[in-house]
């Protein structure tokens, strides 16, 4: 494959992978404005974010079989068309329940881009090239949370929150055109592939019965739910309680993203000296300590903006070490069912993330406490899973530093 063609393909696949993160983060600075326009609370608006997480969780399990049955491009076209349709319908919402439903539909559409982009990397690039391409994609996805809320903050301040959905809709249109005219069909449809629930469920059950998967997938997903608790409550905490401006909130979100991205990149270096198993143990222990101190400060009303930023940064830094290593350890026992294991872990992450964001939205909008409370609960439950799970794993399969580093990116 010519070098120029490879660059085009990586750019298109990278842009497809960013649709989900942009959809999650870009409208966050508009929570207060959306609540005012729709005559509701910020907590109710946060449920539209929870609905998006639920949609992504369900979509991960849906698109895997569809991509194998019908090829890569048809499900991708369907997902993008659904996303575009629901994005422009968001302009006409008159109450928060309509927004919640449309965000769920939007998530089902955006999920096609994430699953298809990963599948097409495997199809279009050699085994030797794939890790570098995946690393490029993961870096683009990691940078998206830095750019999206900052851009959203300026867009909402200049125009209105509805223009975020205009932007996202046109972004998806460009992706659809690029997919139609520039992306090759990389996988021959398999008409014999069964879409019946039973064989698909059996495949997932086989994965779940593996103690190493269930232990580390739970650790990864539960700690990740702490990130979702932060994301869903951050508009209220920063813009309402600490009275940060929309553009200021965007910059804060970008700054905190650096903590997560930076530690996940540093993880690649540390793997040269320490095993994934040790890194997970140390990082999870540190996360439990930091989140407990954060909660104590919140309960005693000792927090201010800067202390809150510091504690969140510490929590996210620990997550940057936990998540890639736990994910790599969860997938290590599989070769045959790697696709099912990966989809199941992604669905578990988003499902628990949705639950965490719903729980946070149920609490008072006038206190910082719900954020550290859910983050602390996530860290402590994950530690319990680690202690119990390691007793159930008879022979733990370690991962190579290279494998964990690829997941880290």
Q: Could you give me the name of the CATH homologous superfamily of the largest domain?
A: MFS general substrate transporter like domains
Average of per-residue pLDDT values: 85
Number of strands: 0
What is the class of the largest domain in the CATH system? Mainly Alpha
Element string (H = helix, E = strand): HHHHHHHHHHHHHHH
Total tally of structural domains: 2
Q: What share of the residues does DSSP label as strand, in percent?
A: under 5%
Mind describing the biggest β-sheet? none
Keywords: Cell membrane, Membrane, Transmembrane, Transmembrane helix, Transport
Transmembrane segments: 7-24, 44-63, 75-94, 100-121, 133-157, 163-181, 213-231, 251-270, 279-299, 305-331, 343-363, 369-388
Protein name: Bcr/CflA family drug resistance efflux transporter
Main location: membrane
Q: Can you walk me through this structure?
A:
The chain has 409 residues and is mainly α. The chain folds into two domains: 1-183, MFS general substrate transporter like domains (Growth Hormone, Chain: A, Up-down Bundle); 196-409, Growth Hormone, Chain: A, CATH 1.20.1250.20. It is 80% helix and 0% strand. It is built from 15 helices and no strands. The model has no long low-confidence stretch (mean pLDDT 85). It is found in: Cell membrane.
Which labels suit this protein?
15 helices; mainly alpha; Growth Hormone, Chain: A; Bcr/CflA family drug resistance efflux transporter
